[in-house]
Amino acid sequence: MKSAVIGFPRVGKLRELKFASEKYFRGEITKEELDETAESLRKEHWQLQKSNGIHYIPSNDFSFYDGMLDMAVLLNAVPEEYRKLGLDEQDTYFAMARGYQGEKGDVKAFTMKKWFNTNYHYMVPELNDGIQLKLFGSKPFDEYEEAKALGIETKPVIIGAFTFLKLAKYNGSRTAADFVEQVVKAYEDILYKLNELGTKWVQIDEPALVMDLSEEDIKLFVTLYEAILRSKNNVKVLIQTYFGDVRDCYRQILSLEFDGIGLDFLEGKKTASLLKENGFPDNKILFAGVINGKNIWKCDYKKTLDLLLEIRKQAEHVVISTSCSLLHVPYTLENETKLEADVKTYFAFAKEKLRELQELSIMTESGDFEAFAEYDNNRQIFESERSYKDKEVQANVMALSEGDFRREMNRKEREELQKKEFALPLLPTTTIGSFPQTQKVKKNRSSYRKGKIDKETYDRKVFAFIEECIRKQEELGLDVLVHGEYERNDMVEFFGENLAGFIFTEKAWVQSYGTRCVKPPIIFGDIKRIRPITVHYSVYAQGLTKRPVKGMLTGPVTILNWSFPREDISLQEMVYQIGIAIRDEVCDLEKAGIRIIQIDEAALKEKLPIRKNDWYREYLDWAIPAFRLCHSRVKPETQIHTHMCYSEFEEIVTDIDNMDADVISFEASRSRLDIINALKKSNFETEVGPGVYDIHSPRIPTVDEITQTLEKMLEKIDKNKLWVNPDCGLKTRGIPETKASLKNLVKAAEAVRSQL
Ligand SMILES: Nc1nc2c(c(=O)[nH]1)N[C@@H](CNc1ccc(C(=O)N[C@@H](CCC(=O)N[C@@H](CCC(=O)N[C@@H](CCC(=O)O)C(=O)O)C(=O)O)C(=O)O)cc1)CN2
Ligand code: MET
Ligand SMILES: [Zn+2]
């Protein structure tokens, strides 16, 4: 069998693209220098795949920011306000990605959303009435030719018309249907152009096909491809799906003129049975996604080869592929110098997965797997005990009962008690937790890490940052303060480092959005808290001020979702183990005099199963209890906050309310205020702080803007329940813009408050 890769990480093995782009944003390097870095990364990635014998190598999977944004630009979906800036192509692109505030004008960034159930974010294309979709750019063609010049035939990857139209937002009166004609023509032109270039295969990504589809959706999909595929000429078209199965439209996919069909056999629970029940045509190639693009554990060769043999029974032509783009795993294990050898043997990152594809490809050609040393080695790894087990932790989870998930007093009574306890003004102002992670803050941590300073010196510096932060917040006039999170590299990695059962890496970065990356810790065994994690930082901060300072924790669902999970026990078991650890931390904070505790569940919505049918059984039935577990033991007057980003949780507002927090803050400014309508409709009881400005962009919101936002919110939210805060933490921002933004936030809150 031949092998294929859906997409490769683009930031580089040492995040070269991140550092070059950030330098470019700061004006430290030129566009040409940025381009050079990009080109050398693309070359390296293609050559690496080629040298690992990959037969179908992707191109145009590279992006300076995001593939969906690239697609929008390729299709000419650049709204007028960005064009009007008069910037060149590259800077117009970055203005759409990050917003722009300067001598040429003032525009906000595009909305950013979670890419299906991953921690990657895409930019939401804006299809305003004035937009005319047509083939405009040349990125896929340029990159195809660039690879070809290196002697590498690639399959350009583009996002498909259906997914593009489904994920776009429509600001005017036109809907997806009104863009069909234009979009078809644009994709036809893409195919013509590829044909002209002699491209053999194109990969059209249609992950939106794994969602629950309506009749209308299916009709749209069929209409689009009946038309588009008429123009393929000599180009073979692979329709690539991932993150689930295509149960709603499998037969339609088969009946269209695709040459290759990419299916996910790992997350697609029904993929194998779809194949069995409906067969697979002999004149098409099945790209079987069997190498996990989302987790870092080695592939189990026996299991995978058995699966491939099963698949072979249904499909004549099979190519071994990744289950999704390798964008979601780190680049290579080779840079990990501190992992113990016996631990390391269990993992495969992107580069190592290429090797797995190659080995499987070779073994399937032979038929006698057992003759291969690689097969044998792999068997041994899978037959040995992979994880650290802890009997006590397991017993604690087993012993959990009703009472562990319930606070003693109901929310309404708590609310009255807390209003007296804290005596805050109407529309209290606060922030989400982190303050700018400046060079100084990061340097302190890296010095400690490298052993240049000891823990005491490190902490002394952290305490100094905290003090400065508290003073700044008092000056700004915020009501509920935070300590600033200066001790954290990342809100999940930091907790992972302080919990037994996790291991962490040095360079295993994964792109989250734009230039921002995360280094997810790996869950390797049963999890328990070994020591208090945040208590001394919080206590120190509270000691500096009379105003309440929030204790700041990451919740169990988020820690789980932003880690690489084990594959030998259930998610529920892992999340309860983490929940118990966080509960102990919550109790210690309360004991130490911290009266408000925020438990962030930033990633709660992210892993809500794509299909509605699975929401409760597979997720919410344990995710919501896991959060409740953390705060079930606190006193009624202790106020529990939570925070969620990229919310879009309209459909699960009742479940969010059931987390039984006292206050929730969430993202609401980059996307429309839909969620607020949903809160009103569901009689949401939790007090709420919908973000009043977007922190993912350096742009400073004006007082007027925030005032208007608050006034709009007050139309739907009881004034006694509304909090005022930014969208999310401020760690990615600089100090000047943070100060300016928060100053405007406080001013706006005061102005609106005085009218109430
Ligand atoms: N896990 C996670 N997912 C999330 C979020 C989040 O906060 N965490 N937020 C949402 C948005 N996503 C985000 C993802 C990343 C960042 C972010 O700021 N990432 C930083 C890295 C943060 C970090 O771990 N920093 C390390 C430093 C790591 C580093 O670069 N070290 C240098 C050395 C630096 C030095 O010597 O100064 C190196 O290793 O080469 C630290 O502070 O300790 C970045 O890409 O720049 C922000 C938001 C959704 N998903
Ligand atoms: C990605 S959610 C971030 C929450 C965290 N408390 C912070 O402010 O950074
Ligand atoms: Zn957030």
From TrEMBL:
Q: Which reaction does it catalyse?
A: 5-methyltetrahydropteroyltri-L-glutamate + L-homocysteine = tetrahydropteroyltri-L-glutamate + L-methionine
> Binding of Zn(2+): at which residues?
H643, C645, E667, C728
Group of enzyme by EC: transferase
Q: Where does L-homocysteine bind?
A: I432, G433, S434, E485, D600
Q: Any binding details for the cofactor? A: Binds 2 Zn(2+) ions per subunit. Binds 1 zinc ion per subunit.
Q: Which CDD domains match?
A: CIMS_C_terminal_like, CIMS_N_terminal_like
Molecular function in Gene Ontology: 5-methyltetrahydropteroyltriglutamate-homocysteine S-methyltransferase activity; zinc ion binding
Q: Does the keyword Transferase apply?
A: yes
Protein name, per record? 5-methyltetrahydropteroyltriglutamate--homocysteine methyltransferase
Source organism of the structure: Mobilisporobacter senegalensis
Q: What is the lineage of its organism?
A: Bacteria, Bacillati, Bacillota, Clostridia, Lachnospirales
The encoding gene: metE
